[in-house]
Amino acid sequence: MNDAPTHEWMNPERATMALYRMEEFADKTNTLGFLKGIYPQINAVTFDRTLFCPGSSEQLSDVGCVRVGKNRVRLNIENVFADETGKIFHSVDPKHHKRLLKLADNAATGDPVEINVNPNHRDAIAQAHSSEHLIANAVETLTDGRLYFESGGTLDERGYHKFIGEQIKNLEDLRLAIQKMISEIRGTSMPRNIVFSENGDRRVGFGDMNPTRCEGTHVPFANLTPRITVDNVHPLLQNGAKKLVVVSSTYRNQIQL
Ligand SMILES: [Zn+2]
To answer: Do the Cβ atoms of 237 and 222 come closer than 8 Å?
Structure first.
């Protein structure tokens, strides 16, 4: 594991991601950058750097606003996504499409941009997403890795966490053990731990938890995650694979912003 990456070794497009990837910026919600591109066809803008965490299968994207150029033209940002090269596009509120068209005529690459992430939205998604780490860590630890998060931790719309692997016999005992372990971790002030592997993968955990590959945003300490209730744990046979579903209704409620 290396220290936090510098911009130099990164793919230049990935440099726009560099700010939010590092721990010192993980709690920051505003900064200054420069305009890089305007894409009227897809109603989006790019900057030389960003604090907006793009959406993924793991969590919703940040939202907020930016002010572009000397006239500080405000554009509301309603979604942020990364393309396959890592370039981060900021989708502009359709109500501001005319402003974007004007900027396309008047603004230039290198114009200053004020970047403002909505802190309440950031907190809500970071809390909800951090809960996933705690649930996944509890299941994986309690089953010695025999059950692990399916496809990196996708949560379906019902608030179900799906794990794949060897079935456990006593599901109620497992549910209680998961609940107990999550409550214990939430009772500590274990700090968020962000490390980078040599190939640039960002890995995140809390305290001495095994850090898992993740590009999301997280609360700075485990005790800042919301209270999590594990309602139900049940087996599922899907596409020939034995799965375990952990139902956490508190998580589902939490993500409703
Ligand atoms: Zn994460």
So the answer is: no
Residue spans of the domains in the chain: they are: 12-117, 122-255
The Å distance, Cα 227 to ligand 1 centre, comes to 17
Superfamily of domain 122-255, CATH level 4: Threonyl-trna Synthetase; Chain A, domain 2 (3.30.980.10)
Residue list, CB under 5 A from ion ligand 1? 204, 214, 216
Q: Decide: pTM greater than 0.70.
A: yes
Domain 12-117 fold is Elongation Factor Tu (Ef-tu); domain 3 (2.40.30)
Q: Using CA atoms, how far apart are residues 253 and 17, in angstroms rounded to an integer?
A: 29
- How confident is the model over 213-249, as pLDDT tens digits? 888 889 999 999 988 888 888 888 878 877 788 887 7
Q: How far is the CA of 128 from the centre of ligand 1 (A)?
A: 10
Distance of CA 110 from the midpoint of ligand 1 (Å): 32
Name the residue with tokens 């995650």. 225
Q: Which residue has the tokens 């907020």?
A: 64
The pLDDT tens digits of the residues spanning 183-210 come to 999 999 999 998 888 887 888 999 988 8
